[in-house]
C-alpha cells in the first residue's frame, strides 16, 4: 500500500509539535507481551499511523524534500529472519539494555507465522541443551538463526567452536533435522569470544546452504550466511518502485551500475532496460550468488565484479550511465562518493537504510537535484526504514 502527502486519511503533514501531542494522546497497548523487556521492538506502544508520520518527518528533514510517497504493508508478522539465543530457560532475545540477559521468547509478533512454527520446533527439541553462557563464555549452543523466505526455510545452529561437547551437539542437531519442517539445517561454528551469528565455517546437515526468493517474477538464490532483506513483501514493493522509475527513462542504449549490488537483485530486475549492467559488490559469497542469479534468470548483458566500492576508479563506464547505490548502514566511503560524482551519471537512485547517513551524503551531490523520493517501511515497530531518492543531473 502507498500513501502520499495528499491522502486525507493519513495526514502526514503535521508539525513536530502536533505529532508530539498526538503521541501523548494516542498511545496504545502493545500487541506483544514481551514489549518493553525484549530489545527487538521500540514502537509497539505507538499507533502505526503515527509511526509512519514520524518516519516521514525524519526523511523530509534529512533530504529537505516534502513530496515523499510512503509505502507500507502489514505492521506485524513480516520478518523472515530472526536470530534467537539459547539460554537456560529456552530460547529468546536480548533484554533491553542488558546484552547478557535473555528474555525467553516462545512467539515473536513481528516474525512471520512459518518462522514462529519452526521456533516452536526448536524450543521443544532443544529445551535441555548445553546452552552457551554469555558471561562465562562456556557451553555449546549459541544461536538458532531461523530464515523463512516465501517458499523456503532454514535453521542455522551456531555452536561454540571451543566447546568440548561439540560431538554431542552435532548428533542432537542431526536428530532434529530428521523431524523438523525446515527445509535446510546448517551447523555454523564461531569462537567463544565472538558475538556473531554467521560464519564461513559451517556445514550442511540437511538440504542446502542456499535459500531461494522471488521478486517481480525473478528468482534469486542467496547463501544462508549472507544478507537478504527480511521483509519480502515490502522489498518487492521497493523493487517495483525502482523499476518503474528506470522504465520512465529511454535507457535502452545506456549502462547501469548496480553499486553495493549484493546478490544482484537490482541488476537482474532492471537488466532488460539497459544495454549493459555492472554489479559491484565486495563480499565474495554475494558475488558468487550474483553470478548464479544472472544465469538462473538468463541475463546475458550483465556482469558481477568483486570490488570494494571505494576502489570504483579501477573500473570505466561508457555513457550514458545510470547508477543504483544501495550501501550498508555505514553509508558510502568518501572515495566512492567522489568517484561517483566524477562519473557524472545521468541518474543516481540512492537506496538507503540509514536516513542519518543519507542526510550527510546527499549534500555531496551538488550537481544533482531530487526528482522523487519514497519511504518504504520494511521495519514496522522500529525506528528503521528504507528510503529511495531519485537524483537527476542538473542541466
Task: Provide an overview of this structure.
It is a single chain. The protein is an alpha/beta fold. It folds into 3 domains: 70 residues, no CATH class; 134 residues, OB fold (Dihydrolipoamide Acetyltransferase, E2P); 165 residues, Rossmann fold, CATH 3.40.50. It has 9 helices and 18 strands. A 9-stranded mixed sheet has the order 1-2-17-18-16-15-12-13-14, sandwiched between helices. A 7-stranded mixed sheet has the order 5-4-3-6-7-8-9, covered by helices on one side. The protein has a two-stranded antiparallel sheet with strand order 10-11. Helix 7 links the parallel strand 13 and strand 14. Helix 1 packs antiparallel against helix 2 and helix 2 runs parallel beside helix 9. The longest helix is centred in the N-terminal third of the chain and has 16 residues.
Amino acid at each position: 500500500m502507498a500513501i502520499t502527502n495528499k491522502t486525507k486519511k493519513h495526514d502526514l503533514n503535521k508539525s513536530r509539535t502536533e505529532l508530539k501531542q498526538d503521541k501523548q494522546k494516542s498511545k496504545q497497548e502493545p500487541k506483544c507481551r514481551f514489549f518493553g523487556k525484549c530489545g527487538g521492538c521500540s514502537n509497539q506502544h505507538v499507533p502505526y499511523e503515527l509511526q509512519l508520520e514520524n518516519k516521514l518527518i525524519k526523511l523530509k528533514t534529512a533530504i529537505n524534500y516534502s513530496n515523499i510517497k510512503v509505502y507500507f504493508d502489514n505492521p506485524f508478522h513480516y520478518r523472515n529472519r530472526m536470530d534467537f539465543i539459547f539460554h537456560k530457560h529456552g530460547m529468546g532475545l536480548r533484554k533491553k539494555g542488558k546484552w547478557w540477559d535473555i528474555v525467553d521468547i516462545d512467539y515473536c509478533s513481528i516474525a512471520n507465522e512459518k518462522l514462529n512454527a519452526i521456533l516452536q520446533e526448536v524450543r521443544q527439541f532443544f529445551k535441555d541443551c548445553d546452552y552457551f553462557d554469555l558471561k562465562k563464555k562456556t557451553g555449546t549452543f549459541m544461536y538458532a538463526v531461523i530464515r523463512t523466505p516465501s517458499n523456503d526455510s532454514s535453521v542455522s545452529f551456531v555452536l561454540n567452536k571451543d566447546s568440548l561437547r561439540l560431538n554431542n551437539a552435532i548428533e542432537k542437531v542431526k536428530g532434529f533435522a530428521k523431524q523438523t519442517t525446515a527445509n535446510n539445517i546448517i551447523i555454523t561454528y564461531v569462537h567463544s569470544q565472538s558475538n556473531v551469528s554467521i560464519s564461513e565455517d559451517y556445514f550442511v546437515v540437511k538440504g542446502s546452504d542456499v535459500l531461494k526468493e522471488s521478486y517481480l517474477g525473478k528468482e534469486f538464490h542467496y547463501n544462508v550466511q549472507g544478507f537478504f532483506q527480511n521483509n519480502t513483501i515490502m522489498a518487492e514493493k521497493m523493487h517495483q518502485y525502482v523499476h518503474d522509475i528506470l522504465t520512465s527513462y529511454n535507457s535502452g542504449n545506456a549502462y547501469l551500475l548496480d553499486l553495493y549490488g549484493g546478490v544482484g537483485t537490482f541488476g537482474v530486475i532492471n537488466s532488460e532496460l539497459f544495454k549493459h549492467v555492472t554489479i559491484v559488490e565486495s563480499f565474495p559469497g554475494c558475488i558468487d550468488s550474483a553470478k548464479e542469479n544472472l544465469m538462473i534468470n538468463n541475463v546475458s548483458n550483465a556482469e558481477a565484479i568483486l570490488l570494494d566500492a571505494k576502489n570504483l576508479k579501477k573500473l570505466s563506464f561508457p555513457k550514458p550511465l545510470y547508477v543504483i547505490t544501495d550501501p550498508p548502514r555505514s553509508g558510502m566511503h568518501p572515495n566512492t562518493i567522489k568517484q561517483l560524482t566524477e562519473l557524472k551519471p545521468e541518474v543516481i537512485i540512492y537506496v538507503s537504510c540509514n536516513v542519518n547517513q543519507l542526510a550527510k551524503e546527499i549534500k555531496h551531490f551538488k550537481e544533482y537535484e531530487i526528482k522523487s523520493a519514497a519511504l518504504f517501511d520494511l521495519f514496522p515497530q522500529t525506528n528503521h526504514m528504507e528510503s529511495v531518492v531519485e537524483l537527476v543531473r542538473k542541466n
